[in-house]
């Protein structure tokens, strides 16, 4: 048996708070104090990559440049993820609140929300709320302004450096790292870029105190997380759950009784087959996720799932680096050939090697993570891919 | 083809003439005219004092900044896994039947374009489509017929 937690619903992200009070409290705090609280809470980035938020703020705060930025990454494009849209729709003031707190911590006066083009319909409402928000923080004494930038339908712009390029009016092609955003981000200025949910969580940590948050979750995955649940489930939607549960517990709650696999973390995440449900923890000690949880029952062909993901990556690869551009095309062609019987099933082993090479040689997270889904689906559902 | 006229100037006055103004300007043109013509992109290049190749380079990177002719209503059908599992093909077929065009095409009266797109973030209410910026979710072929009929009357 694994030492896991029960499945517990949490109400933190959507909990109503008096924003002005929280921000007044934050206004009285020093940069060091805010960073210390966020570090103590154990909060890791909620966009998927899981970098400790407090550290990101600490590194950006340490930069000497007087011009710094806080960027909110609302370019939610991972297949199966829709929590950031819901958060912005329901509690945008808390997203803005998190940005002000982050800005105080790192010493920024400017904030940018990069909203994916697919969510443009939300913009008029979000701008109205922003106007009120600006008035409110001015009364407290903050010198901080937020602007919106819109995406135009490119998954890769969720990658932080591609997002900066896009804000700067360029093609959304990821940059070489280092330098990291904390020293050279948007407009090549020190930048802390955080996911929508991360910012809201940070505000709630200041509100409730880091100890309260730290009590939730496990050693490696502190706190709670908003999950986007879809696929073969009677209850699709948004659910905030404490971290540390197994896939089995998740399936017990959300499955339709016939779940054969769960894709954790979207197309760039991992496929967990039924036999591994009980031994796999959802979180950084097991399978990490930016929130995307897709359930598949036994009526689904995992070949179709894999094919769909590979088509997605082949289209969304920015094309800048060869391992990713050509790799995605060849993986897609490769599984099609095996399916048609044009190549022997052992060709799949060659394709896995290619996916591993992409992990090492690709420039950014897109190419590096194609192999996650590829390997976990091919290894666990080999027969479905071949026959 | 449309005449871009004063629009580029208006948008540049609003968003500025920096390189970072390029995206909002291009998005503004697409919002009005649904796609970018060569003429419009050259106009933007002049206004921002950058090369037309730079403008095209940025525009051609982004799926929503179309550089080929699009209708007044651009329909994007989500084809990513959950929508695909929950009946995306039925939605696509009824749209093709109603509009008498295939994916990637525009009706001859330039009213509708039919495209497929990657995940638009409505997996819990699949299948979903976008018509310009508006999402329509939990679709059935019947619902699609009603929605398109409404657009045809506009």
Architecture overview:
- The complex is a heterodimer of chains A (387) and B (154).
- Chain A has 387 residues and is an alpha/beta fold.
- Chain A has helices at residues 19-28, 31-41, 53-62, 83-106, 123-140, 160-167, 196-208, 210-214, 247-254, 302-316, 322-340, 347-361, 365-380, 382-386; strands at 69-74, 110-115, 145-150, 191-195, 224-231, 237-242, 259-264, 270-273, 292-297.
- Chain A has three domains: 19-214, NADH-ubiquinone oxidoreductase 51kDa subunit (Rossmann fold), CATH 3.40.50; 224-297, Ubiquitin-like (UB roll) (Roll); 302-386, NADH-ubiquinone oxidoreductase 51kDa subunit, iron-sulphur binding domain (de novo design (two linked rop proteins), Up-down Bundle), CATH 1.20.1440.
- Chain A is built from 14 helices and nine strands.
- In chain A, the strands form two sheets. Chain A has a five-stranded mixed sheet. Chain A has a four-stranded parallel sheet with strand order 3-2-1-4, with helices on both faces.
- The longest helix of chain A is centred in the first third of the chain and has 24 residues, at 83-106.
- The mean pLDDT of chain A is 96.
- Chain B has two domains: 4-61, Arc Repressor Mutant, subunit A (Orthogonal Bundle), CATH 1.10.10; 73-153, Glutaredoxin, CATH 3.40.30.
- In chain B, a hairpin with a 2-residue loop joins strand 3 (129-131) and strand 4.
- With 154 residues, chain B is of the alpha+beta class.
- The two termini of chain B are 21 Å apart.
- The longest helix of chain B is centred in the last third of the chain and has 13 residues, at 141-153.
- Chain B is elongated.
- Chain B has helices at residues 7-15, 22-33, 38-48, 52-61, 81-85, 88-99, 141-153, and strands at residues 73-78, 112-117, 129-131, 134-136.
- Chain B has a four-stranded mixed sheet with strand order 2-1-3-4, with helices on one face.
- The chains are: A alpha/beta (387), B alpha+beta (154).
- Chain A binds chain B through residues 76-82, 85, 116-121, 149-155, 166-173, 187, 228-232, 236-238, 267, 294, 300, 304-305, 308-309, 312, 315-316, 318, and chain B through 18-24, 26-27, 30, 57-58, 61-65, 79-82, 84-85, 117-126, 130, 133-135.
